[in-house]
Specification:
Chain lengths: ~575, ~130
């Protein structure tokens, strides 16, 4: 069977639906016009005259559509009037039937579905810049879409819930985000969403159902063997399955959450830097949280608690666990059965606790744990888990030491990955290097951008993106990073940005110094103000500015001045 | 200060001012417009075009384009003058004169664009 495109399908449905009404209209028109032309009439003087076919058509047209201009061109005879009555009823009824059919078609849910699929596929095809496919538009998906829009990156959204898609249409994104209410696990919908298009840079799979996620990942892999896939998964079995597909990044919200929490405890400076980089408004660069080590109490030991505990133990902290249904836990100082309340907290040694993690999957429980801790030990550090985005205002008012929202941390991690996978690599590198190296980086960044919001972007020193730089380097001239980011307005200063990493031939140079020489097609992860990105882009594509930055003098412009300079 | 920029700016602004000097006066009165000024304006414009050749920046490309527009319009005006200068004793007729001066008015706009870009670029670089 030959395949039909969406356009064919929509047109076909319309044509098939309108076949009956159109046929009826044609027959009624034919009867009415022929009758009018055959019935004898009279002219102004009363002589016998037949109506021409054209006049008959004209008369029938305004009669059938109930316009009624009257008896044109001459007054009618009685037989003509009799026929006119017949024409009027016949015509009006058949028009009502036709219009009714159109309205019925426009209300047919299957037709509307075909139409919206067609419109969606069409608007995806017209996207002329890199975009990502987001499957599943829950809390994480919508936060991710917001983050992408803030970075002027586009996305295409698929979700099975019509309410979520309706909500998306009302958002004020900077970039148009086409959305379709459809099952992303169906290959046709993935193709409509542009998985095969060259502009499509990644598929992000975020539905809550593990099986569905796996199915979408498999389909996407078959549709496009090279595309990077980011998939949410919390089960080990599915994660293993996913990694065998190749080029799949498994996103485990619980693990990301636990990593962040453990980072906050053991590497507060890095946590502070990371918070600033991902756009946390409350974080101020260079002012890390003061998280104490010592006696910790962990309330809630579900899947999330499991990961939290794992990271606690890795950081040589033995927490006391409070949970109603928990067995033996290796590495825990003590396990208390029961809900976290005044009694169990006292039993867990709240009197000398350094910090408490309220990490159950119930926001009200977490908030009430916070109230208990306030009453029993006001100066303990509190880390609060927020489960749903709706409770934001209550959590803002709670003023805990640190609030972690699973969907937000996941969305931020994915966003970092989509902007550049290098970001997470740099964070992991700093984690290994320890807090002193982090402190140096933070100092450098602060001296570059001051109190401005850090902004991350990647540059590629290839011809297409950095014409002047590529040409300069290919002439075998030496260009260092420091020269590239000099400020054209003041050669003594640099632009307000620093380089986080340079990727060259699969190797990475982490946090390079200003004397680092650059090569052709280096991929550099930059961090600085948005203004410096604009300035740097101008430098990279203007040979004269670049020459001025390197030598401190203007190069002669134009053939004549160049010739004079060389003579 | 950069000698190259002085020379460059001098020629471009001189081209604009000569163009303006020719356009001044009643549009259809041949006595208000001097054919020598027009000829010098063409020469200076051609020199300006020559100086702009070979600049590889985006701004250089727009400067060259506006200069070429001015050249085309001024040379067309000069050709019309040659063809119509025998119309009357004092030179081209009123209608021909209006044509010539309005073409030069067009060239004037192109020259203004050139100078605006030059000044703008200098201000932006703030060195």
């Amino acid at each position: 069977m030959a395949t039909t495109s969406e356009l064919d399908r929509v047109t076909m449905v319309v044509l098939r639906y309108m076949r009956g009404p159109v046929l009826v209209l044609i027959i009624v028109y034919a009867i009415g016009i022929t009758g009018m032309a055959l019935i004898p009439g009279q002219d102004a003087e009363g002589n016998l005259e037949y109506m021409s076919l054209f006049h008959a058509f004209y008369f029938f047209t305004y009669t059938a559509t109930t316009t009624g201009f009257g008896e044109i061109p001459n007054g009618f005879t009685d037989p003509q009037r009799l026929w006119a009555i017949f024409c009027l009823y016949l015509g009006v009824v058949s028009w009502l039937y036709a219009i009714g059919s159109i309205i019925r078609l426009a209300q047919n849910p299957h037709f509307l579905l075909a139409l919206s699929e067609h419109q969606f596929a069409h608007s995806v095809k017209r996207i002329d810049q890199p975009f990502f496919i987001i499957c599943g538009f829950g809390d994480t998906g919508s936060l991710l879409a917001r983050g992408l829009s803030d970075h002027w990156l586009g996305a295409v959204v698929l979700d099975t819930d019509p309410e979520r898609i309706k909500a998306l249409v009302l958002r004020d994104y900077r970039i148009k985000m086409p959305a379709l209410c459809a099952d992303p696990g169906v290959p046709k919908h993935l193709v409509d969403a542009g998985v095969k298009l060259s502009h499509c840079k990644a598929v992000v799979i975020l539905t809550v159902d593990e099986e569905v996620n796996l199915r979408i990942a498999v389909m996407a892999r078959f549709m496009n063997p090279d595309i990077p896939i980011l998939c949410r998964s919390t089960s080990e079995r599915h994660s293993e399955h996913l990694t065998t597909l190749g080029n799949v990044t498994v996103i485990n919200p619980f693990e990301i959450f636990a990593q962040l929490l453990s980072m906050a405890i053991t590497a507060p400076r890095l946590h502070n830097l990371n918070s600033c980089l991902v756009g946390n408004r409350k974080a101020r660069l260079g002012r890390p949280l003061d998280v104490p080590t010592g006696h910790w109490i962990l309330c809630g030991y579900g899947r999330m608690g499991h990961w939290l505990h794992k990271y606690f133990v890795r950081n040589h902290i033995r927490p006391v666990i409070i949970d109603p249904d928990v067995g033996e836990v290796a590495g825990a100082a003590q396990v208390i059965h029961g809900h976290a309340n005044l009694n169990t907290l006292k039993e867990a040694g709240i009197a000398h606790a350094a910090g408490v993690v309220a990490g159950t999957d119930n926001d009200h429980d977490n908030l009430s744990v916070l109230m208990c801790v306030r009453a029993l030990r006001p100066n303990a550090f509190t880390i609060l888990r927020q489960n749903t985005h709706e409770n934001q205002i209550a959590f803002d008012a709670a003023q805990a030491g640190l609030i972690l929202q699973s969907s937000l941390t996941t969305a931020r991690r994915i966003l970092k990955h989509l902007i550049s996978p290098q970001i997470q690599i740099v964070i992991d590198y700093l984690r290994e290097q320890g807090e002193d190296v982090t402190q140096q980086v933070v100092e450098r960044l602060r001296s570059a951008i001051g109190d401005n919001k850090p902004h991350l972007w990647r540059i590629n020193l290839c011809k297409a993106e950095a014409f002047a730089v590529a040409e300069y380097i290919q002439k075998n001239e030496r260009l260092t990073l420091g020269e590239l980011i000099r400020n054209p307005h003041d050669l003594e200063k640099s632009l307000s940005c620093i380089a986080f990493a340079i990727e060259r031939d699969g190797k990475r140079i982490m946090v390079p110094g200003n004397d680092e020489p650059l090569r052709y097609c280096d991929e550099i992860l930059m961090c600085g103000t948005e203004h410096s990105e604009t300035m740097l882009n101008a430098t990279m594509n203007n040979a004269y500015t670049l020459h001025y930055l390197v030598t401190g003098s203007d190069a002669p412009r134009g053939y004549l001045f160049k010739w004079l300079a060389n003579a | 200060m950069n000698l190259e920029r002085v020379v460059f700016g001098f020629v471009i602004i001189l081209a604009l001012t000569f163009n303006f000097a020719f356009v001044m006066g009643d549009i259809d009165n041949a006595q208000h417009h001097n054919v020598w000024i027009l000829t010098i304006a063409i020469l200076i414009n051609l020199i300006a075009t020559g100086l702009k050749l070979g600049d590889r920046s985006q701004v250089g490309a727009v400067l060259l384009a506006s200069s070429l527009v001015a050249d085309v319009l001024l040379i067309t005006a000069r050709i019309i003058w040659i063809v119509t200068q025998t119309d009357t004793d004092i030179g081209p007729s009123a209608a021909s004169m209006a044509n010539i001066v309005s073409l030069c008015g067009g060239a004037l706009v192109a020259s203004i664009v050139s100078v605006t870009i030059l000044v703008g670029e200098t201000l932006i670089s703030r060195r």
